[in-house]
């Protein structure tokens, strides 16, 4: 078969065009995946850096955590519910200051490892000194209690009495075979 | 040697001339560079001849198998004079195109074979204002094709076909052995050809192949007769000066008796020359190939076209191969880059998986610490905020109706006062407190209830967020 120079140039040109087209198609079709992989690598590396930093700082945290946790009440992990005990304790503190808790409702437990947070929503009635005294004592208990929400409204006209809601977050730890918690 | 040749071929052009010798086949190769040409190699090989017929031409011999190794580049071969029809003729035009047109016609007139069975070529020996002296040659296509086949069998492509005797004349001219002015008679006996050439001013006017043997004293009569006939013919055609010398070129010694007898019978001086004093004939052919663009070229046009097409095919194959190679290289790099990224991703994933358990423990501890820290941070506790707001309360008739505290978010206050100014002073005090990030949704209205005019206010105090606090 005789092929002229023009046909050969056309053939080579077509070959080059086809290969260039194929290359463009390949690069185009793979570029998104390539970019996605790069992003995934960057995200993973950032996560690894963060994890490494966390691990490096862990010793410092553990020391601080141990210091804070030593004041927490410890309950047995098998104990069904610790809410009654906590509500009783809070009721005791409030009674000391004439701060009348008329209704208590515990929220679900929020565990973080062996550390558990439990919110108790209390409806109360009392005078301003009673609430200040109650809040002061809760604050003095350290890491055990934290007031996350407080609502105060007057209980009646010119009576000087107040009422409202308070959400007290209680922190404690749960450990297997824990002895009876100290008050 | 093959490696050397292949290396040279990559950069330079090689030209080889090959021709028969009495013993076999000889060749010379030159390499052509930008600076010029220089000899690369020369050599010879014995060839197999049936029945020891040494005069056999290139078409009849069996070429050695290793010939391909030696005949490199573009190969020129030379035909025996006896295989050719050679004439020198004066044309009435110096125009090369017109001469080319006329050559075929002239050959057709003198050839016993039809023109379509011949390979025809010519060489312009000299030109004047209105004429040109042209050497014409014709060979049977069968002979040319047979030579082509002989070389093709050994994988050698012939690029050019010249004439042996013209190679000898080239060498003689180069060594100034030809009479530059005047006429002379040459006999060239090289074991393959027995040629009579009549020269005028260094150009061949007549070249004739003779079938004679020097070992027979009767050859003198034959030579004398040929010389007489040739000179008579030339005298009839043109004003031809009578030569004074016969130059006899041969490889073997010319017997003194034969020499004196020839001289005596012709009445001309006979001078004997050794052909071995000249370079190899293949060198002469090669020089013609290199120097003379206008020379006898008996190679058929279709051979040239075939070789040109083959060259073109090879060129385009190389280009196509190069394009495909570049593309494959690109593909390789492209896939490698992707593969490297995949590997890097897998390695990073493995690192992440490896660190995850320890990181989870650390994360857990961090979360616990964060939770407990928020318990210990009393800076914006409900008590402290209540105390701060109470302290900011201006003296006078202003009271709260509602106090809503959300840890980490803020406090919403609603209340009443007996004047707007008192409320504005209260807001101003609150905004200057370091406890609160900003005041928003401030609202101050005046309401009259049962004839008592009171200012009703509300405000939201934003506490610093956890990040801002840190």
Give the helix/strand layout.
The complex is a heterodimer of chains A (183) and B (470).
Chain A: H1 5-69, E1 73-76, H2 83-96, E2 100-112, E3 115-126, H3 128-140, E4 145-154, E5 162-175
Parallel strand pairs in A: 1-5
Antiparallel strand pairs in A: 2-3, 3-5, 4-5
Chain B: H1 2-11, E1 13-20, E2 24-33, E3 36-46, H2 67-70, E4 74-79, E5 84-91, H3 96-110, E6 118-127, E7 132-140, H4 141-153, E8 158-163, H5 164-174, E9 183-189, E10 194-200, E11 203-209, H6 219-237, E12 245-250, H7 256-266, E13 269-274, H8 281-291, H9 301-376, H10 382-392, E14 398-406, E15 410-417, H11 420-431, E16 438-449, E17 452-462, H12 466-469
Parallel strand pairs in B: 1-4, 4-8, 9-12, 12-13
Antiparallel strand pairs in B: 1-2, 2-3, 5-7, 6-7, 9-10, 10-11, 14-15, 15-17, 16-17
Helix pairs in contact in B: 5-8, 6-7
Please tag this protein with its features.
heterodimer, A: 183 residues, alpha+beta, five-stranded mixed sheet, B: 470 residues
Outline the structure in words:
The complex is a heterodimer of chains A (about 180) and B (about 475). Helix content of chain A is about 50%, strand content about 30%. With about 180 residues, chain A is of the alpha+beta class. The termini of chain A are far apart. The relative contact order of chain A is 0.13. Chain B has about 475 residues and is α+β, with helices and mostly antiparallel strands. The radius of gyration of chain B is 54 Å and the shape is rod-shaped. Chains A and B meet through helix 1, helix 3, strand 4 and strand 5 of A and helix 9, helix 10 and strand 14 of B. Strand 4 (about 145-155) of chain A pairs antiparallel with strand 14 of chain B.
């Amino acid at each position: 078969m005789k092929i002229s120079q023009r046909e050969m140039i056309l053939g080579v040109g077509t070959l080059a065009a086809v290969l260039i087209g194929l290359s463009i198609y390949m690069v185009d079709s793979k570029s998104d995946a390539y970019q996605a992989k790069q992003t995934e690598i960057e995200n993973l590396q950032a996560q690894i850096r963060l994890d490494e930093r966390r691990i490096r700082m862990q010793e410092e945290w553990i020391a601080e955590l141990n210091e804070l946790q030593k004041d927490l009440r410890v309950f047995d992990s098998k104990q069904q519910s610790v809410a009654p005990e906590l509500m009783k304790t809070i009721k005791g503190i409030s009674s000391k200051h004439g701060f009348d808790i008329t209704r208590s409702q515990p929220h679900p437990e929020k565990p973080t490892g062996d550390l558990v947070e439990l919110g108790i929503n209390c409806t109360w009635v009392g005078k301003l000194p009673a609430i200040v005294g109650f809040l002061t004592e809760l604050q003095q208990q350290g890491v055990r209690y934290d007031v996350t929400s407080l609502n105060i409204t007057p209980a009646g006209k010119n009576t000087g009495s107040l009422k409202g809601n308070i959400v007290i977050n209680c922190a404690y730890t749960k450990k297997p075979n824990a002895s009876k918690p100290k008050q | 040697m093959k490696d050397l040749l292949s290396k040279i071929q990559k950069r330079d052009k090689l030209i080889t001339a090959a021709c028969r010798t009495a013993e076999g086949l000889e060749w010379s190769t030159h390499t052509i560079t930008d600076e010029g040409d220089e000899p690369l190699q020369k050599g010879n090989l014995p060839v197999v001849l049936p029945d020891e017929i040494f005069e056999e031409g290139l078409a009849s011999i069996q070429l050695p198998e290793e010939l391909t190794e030696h005949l490199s580049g573009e190969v020129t071969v030379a035909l025996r004079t006896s295989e050719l029809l050679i004439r020198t003729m004066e044309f009435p035009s110096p125009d090369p195109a017109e001469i080319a047109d006329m050559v075929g016609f002239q050959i057709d007139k003198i050839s016993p074979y039809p023109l379509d069975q011949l390979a025809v070529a010519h060489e312009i020996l000299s030109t004047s204002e209105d004429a040109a002296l042209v050497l014409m040659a014709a060979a049977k296509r069968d002979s040319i094709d047979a030579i082509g086949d002989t070389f093709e069998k050994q994988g050698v492509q012939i690029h050019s076909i010249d004439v042996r005797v013209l190679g000898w004349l080239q060498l003689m001219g180069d060594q100034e052995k030809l009479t530059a002015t005047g006429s002379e008679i040459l006999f060239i006996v090289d074991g393959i050809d027995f040629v009579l050439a009549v020269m005028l001013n260094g150009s061949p006017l007549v070249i004739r192949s003779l079938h004679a043997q020097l070992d027979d004293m009767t050859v003198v009569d034959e030579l004398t007769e040929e010389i007489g006939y040739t000179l008579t013919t030339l005298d009839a055609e043109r004003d031809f000066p009578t030569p004074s010398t016969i130059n006899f070129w041969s490889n073997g010694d010319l017997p003194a008796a034969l020499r004196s007898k020839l001289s005596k019978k012709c009445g001309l001086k006979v001078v004997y020359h050794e052909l071995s004093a000249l370079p190899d004939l293949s060198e002469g052919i090669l020089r013609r190939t290199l120097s003379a663009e206008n020379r006898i070229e008996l190679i058929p046009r279709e051979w040239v076209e075939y070789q040109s097409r083959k060259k073109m095919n090879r060129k385009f194959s190389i280009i196509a191969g190069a394009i495909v190679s570049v593309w494959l290289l690109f593909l390789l790099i492209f896939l490698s880059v992707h593969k490297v990224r995949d590997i890097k991703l897998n390695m990073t994933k493995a690192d992440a998986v490896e660190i995850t358990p320890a990181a989870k423990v650390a994360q857990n501890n961090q979360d616990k610490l964060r939770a407990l820290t928020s318990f210990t941070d009393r800076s914006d506790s409900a008590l402290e905020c209540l105390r701060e707001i109470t302290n900011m309360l201006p003296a006078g008739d202003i009271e709260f109706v509602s106090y809503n505290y959300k840890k980490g978010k803020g406090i919403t206050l609603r209340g009443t006062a007996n004047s707007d100014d008192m409320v504005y002073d209260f807001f101003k005090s609150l905004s200057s407190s370091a406890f609160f990030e900003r005041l928003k949704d401030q609202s101050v209205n005046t309401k009259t209830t049962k004839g008592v005019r009171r200012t009703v206010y509300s405000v939201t105090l934003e506490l610093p967020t956890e990040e801002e606090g840190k």
